[in-house]
Specification:
5-stranded parallel β-sheet; 5 strands; alpha/beta; 5 helices; 145 residues
């Protein structure tokens, strides 16, 4: 009986360790939400921050949530302060897995046609609610460039 209990204890310990190790591997991916609501200068900083972030941690899961003037860089024809289009940078980051989300409340209040939003972006009902959801329900770390 003692041998059986020892063997059972060893099996349970192995199962617990296996589960812990697989959970730890999943936790290696750091999920970050970049919150943007200030316009073009903030977007320019954020693009640079996100590139640096991915260079340091290529496995990072990054979601950019925008509302108010923060959506401006995701609109058709948007350029930075040096008149360089954002489209290339948005496409480059999207190809690396970065997700962009635009507040529908902002689109409605500013009377912006959703077709003017970059094709890489997803429209969400509320930008601030999306930031809260990502933090509370999905364990995202909050950054504001």
């Amino acid at each position: 009986m003692f041998k059986f209990l020892t063997a059972l204890k060893s099996l349970l310990l192995a199962a617990v360790l296996s589960t812990s190790l697989s959970s730890q591997a999943a936790d290696d991916v750091i999920k970050t939400v970049y919150h943007m609501s200030e316009g073009i200068p903030q977007a320019t900083r954020a693009i640079s921050n996100i590139r640096n972030h991915l260079a340091a941690d290529p496995k990072a899961k990054i979601v950019v949530v925008t509302h108010g003037p923060g959506i401006d860089f995701l609109l058709e024809g948007a350029t930075n302060q040096m008149e360089q289009p954002f489209a290339g940078a948005i496409g480059e980051l999207a190809n690396k897995g970065v997700e962009f989300r635009v507040c529908n409340n902002t689109l409605v209040s500013r009377k912006i046609d959703p077709n003017k939003v970059a094709m890489e972006a997803k429209i969400v009902p509320s930008g601030v609610a999306e930031v809260a959801r990502l933090q509370a329900r999905e364990g995202f770390v909050y950054l504001r460039p």
